[in-house]
Amino acid sequence: MLPTESNGNEQEHGKTMTRRQLLASLGAAGVLLATGTGFPGEAQAAAVLTPTLDKGVFYNVKDFGAQGEGRFSQDDTPYIQAAINAASSAVGGTVYIPPGDYVLRSSLQLRSKVHLLGAGPGVTVLRSGDTAVQLIRCLSNVSLSSVEGITFEGTGVGTGSTANPMVECGVYIFESEQIRISRCTFNRLTTGVQLIRSQHIALNNCTFSFMIGSDSPYEGFGVVIEGGSNHTVQSNRFKNVFKNGIMISAGSSYSLIADNIFEACKDAAIVLTSKLTACSYHVIRGNLISAAKIGEEETSCTYGVRLKDYCSFNTISNNAISSPAFAGIQLEASDNAGDDRPYGNTITGNMVNKSVKGIVVLNGSANSVKSNEVRRVETGIVLDTIGESAGSIAKQNVITANSLYQCSVSAVKIGSARCQGNQVFGNGGFDNTAGLTDSGTDTVTAGF
């Protein structure tokens, strides 16, 4: 039997709590959180918590023996797991993790209809007690669960393994659905959240900071989405991420990536990459890639948004991208990609400021680049090819109604005779060294 710790109410070990008992145990700040009132300035995040707390019974992990004292000689995993299991056995409920620093030496297994609720980020901390620990795991058909108000703290050390994809992670979700992660902080981990072949995962109002990376291809990411569909990643903040803030791959589709803020990503802020099965029908909208607090010669990321290889029918709209190293938005495929190329994507309403290139399409076809604003770059919009193989073509793209300013080389450049039958018309701007530099074949410069 797990040890117990006495509390002020002398509750029996493992006894469930009513809503009134939970509110009494939380104190004033906890009452605000649980009733949906929230902390000052956090009304939006607090409102999200209300539906979760209105359902089921409540379990306090302290009643199951969790200490939360931040001592690495202790392991709080079995005690928190016992609370999760008790809630699961009761066909669902809320597991409350009071203020404290809880050391985990192995993974917590989240169950269906179980809601993990902390007292708030920075107040409730789940801390990795060993390398390569996935702090919370949802494995195979977990559904209708949530994680809220918790800080996930890693060891700050990458493994460097190029063979083992099971790296340290805050929340790992595998083939599960309808799970919500909100108002959490992910700090000093090698990966914040990883979604594998899952459906309908919502990730909102979280912060990802100091994601640790190495030569391992599996480390250094804020959010990783592999396969699956219908996710929402919205209103999160990514700061000091070793690789990508958000990486989407392996044929994932139909997700919304919106209203996030990215600061200091060492690679692309958002990247879609896939072969064989298309990454398709994603909406990447209203994100801010910020150059705040960086020097005049520093860059915010390599690319703001990057689509690689088989990425089709995605919409990239109304994003503001400042000071990327190479380009604000780039669509590209390798010279041997065949039909696995960016096709049918729409790039509209974006703003790119201060970069080598604004918007780039390499070996892509039937993409639309319209109504974007690009300033202070060498080349505003580039349409070109990579390589000399039969797949090295860029055709039937449309570049129209863009506003281009202070382009020191050219506002629009079509770089190769392998760029065939593209349309460029209705673009405008000022202070550009050249308007259109066209080395393409059968370029249409007037449209309907």
Shape: elongated
Distance between the termini: 77 Å
Task: Count the DSSP helices.
Answer: 3
CATH 2nd-level architecture of the largest domain: 3 Solenoid
Average pLDDT taken over every residue: 88
At the fold tier of CATH, the topology name of the largest domain is Pectate Lyase C-like
- What's the total number of strands? 39
**Major sheet attributes:** 23 strands, parallel
Fourth-level CATH superfamily of the largest domain:
Single-stranded right-handed beta-helix, Pectin lyase-like
Keywords: Repeat
InterPro entries: NosD_dom, PbH1, Pectin_lyas_fold, Pectin_lyase_fold/virulence, RHGA/B-epi-like_pectate_lyase, SCF-Subunits/Alg-Epimerases, TAT_signal
Domain Periplasmic copper-binding protein NosD beta helix: 301-441
Protein name: Pectate lyase superfamily protein domain-containing protein
Summarize the structure.
The chain folds into two domains: 1-157 and 167-187, Pectate Lyase C-like (3 Solenoid); 244-448, Pectate Lyase C-like (3 Solenoid). The protein has three helices and 39 strands.
